[in-house]
Protein 1
Amino acid sequence: MNTVCKCFTASGYFELRECLRFVLVRDRYQPDSSLDITMPAQEYFDSIPLRVQFTLDGRLLHDGIVREAQYT
């Protein structure tokens, strides 16, 4: 299972490829989805992502804005 999380910031974008856990919730009759993702800390985390594209095995599963980001 290959995951790629492309995070778009005000200054560009970066890709995270090591996903520890993800939960994607999509209602059948609604056009939007909700993504909860846990990834290991990276040096990129000084920038807050504005939009995220999440792909699994080359298939785009989520493309949307970031409502909340937590860094630990």
Protein 2
Amino acid sequence: MINAVLIPLLELSIQEKIESKITQSFALRAKSKELLEEAKVKVEEKISLL
């Protein structure tokens, strides 16, 4: 029964910490993708010089 599932309400400060961590996670993921693309381009450039 879905009606029997209890969802705890967290304190606002804890919710804000979770939000901050999630936001930081998305930013770091985007940065890592950007760095990976830069690395791919550099590797391709080095290969083309051979």
Protein 3
Amino acid sequence: MYPQSHFLFPLFIGELLVKLGYVDQRFVIIAVLVGVFVDLDHPLKHFFLTGELNPRKAWNAGIVKHEDDRTFIHHTNGICFVTILFIILSKYSPYWTAAVMIGYYSHMILDHFSLKKGFIDNMKPKLYWGFWKPVSITILGFELKLARHEIVFDVVMILGLLFTFF
């Protein structure tokens, strides 16, 4: 899924937890930053594959050319490794580890949920389960192919956020 979804999902979860009185806004900021910045591995992998550190080319390689630009943190072994790391870190700082976990796992849920086969490790080039043809747009040279289910998800997250604020 795209950055706006990776931003909105942990923001919604965090704001809901704030509304329930479990966490503060700093917790939400950490969760949102982690949820979005987990994808920094895409341009890094592109750099290691091509030698180019160009955000637009890295983005479009993943979207247009379907380059497998995910590092191990998006795959089964990486998720298991990160989970073990979270278990260890939670012994020292459970509150902040929980914030990072919400960001990371919300990101993984969205990435894996949007695939037909259910897990990135089983992914063939861009096997999104959206039953409809994605909406294709270009913004400042960045290609976007938004699946309609992601647009619906984003609207639901925005409505959920409005609910948490009122």
Protein 4
Amino acid sequence: MRNMSFALTTRQVREKSKDVTRRLGWLHLKVGEAFQPVAKCMGLRPGEKIERIGDAVVTVSTRREPLRRMTDEPEYGREECRREGFPEMSPEEFVAMFCATHKGCTPETTLTRIEFRYGGAG
């Protein structure tokens, strides 16, 4: 089972207020496949260990879509902000934050949208 980093949304995963994530990669992920949310996977210092965030989660759906869909379709964007764990953000704020935290990403970038459920592989 692969680990998926939630460095920017650790709190939201702990609180289970997030059930959608957007990734620049993860093209291989299949519906029904489990993955382990972690606080950080890369850039660990010597002696640091991977910190799991709860139990494994299961992929409900994956699809590719441009990040700008959130601003092109405002109602969709507001719901996606909520599902991403940022109900206080506007779609424009979310897109700006995502681009600022993902090198080379623009609103036109096509991402993998991953919906998941808590409760492990069972």
